[in-house]
């Protein structure tokens, strides 16, 4: 109440607390819990802003835990978002695809070792269950270092799930001509779907005089 402009004396009298107790509380350093709340709010706000205000608690939780490796509970994220008035946009159900579109050829031949970075990237999509439903994570690994060079999280398997991961990898590593992206066939093999290839072309196809593989500029998408 005093923080809202009411006189301290009147506020303390109304709440039946002493003025000395109020000033002691006000001058007390923030607790570890308060500091963590402030830190978590900053992380949530950053992810929410990066999603252009679309991510809700489920995808923010997945982004923080699966993407950034932070240890935080879903309920805690919901509570912080509720107090801060942060909301995401409701998702829409999309029809399931049978993935009958053609895939690219195998340029790797099961040889997954490279002597230089950014010559072979390996992709993977995993499914994770949360209290609010499934989320999918796409990652791009460099074959030499085995480090994640790009990743993306979404509530459904869309072109954006794939192209966001590839876009991050390209932005982080700036690969040269001839880089190969390998993805396995399988239930979650949406890296092989032709519409993803078209979308990737919009990301990297603006670079001239680069090797083209399966309608893609800077990289060749392959499958096996």
Automatic annotation (TrEMBL):
Classification lineage: Bacteria, Bacillati, Actinomycetota, Actinomycetes, Mycobacteriales
Pfam family of the protein (one): HTH_21
SUPFAM superfamilies per record: Ribonuclease H-like
Ranges of residues in domain Integrase catalytic: 113-224
Any GO BP annotation: DNA integration
Protein name: Integrase catalytic domain-containing protein
Organism of provenance: Rhodococcus qingshengii
Task of the protein: Involved in the transposition of the insertion sequence.
Domain of life, per lineage: Bacteria
NCBIfam families: transpos_IS3
Single Gene Ontology MF annotation: nucleic acid binding
Gene3D superfamilies: Ribonuclease H-like superfamily/Ribonuclease H (3.30.420.10)
InterPro entries the UniProt entry points to: HTH-like_dom, Integrase_cat-core, RNaseH-like_sf, RNaseH_sf, Transpos_IS3, Transposase_IS3/IS150/IS904
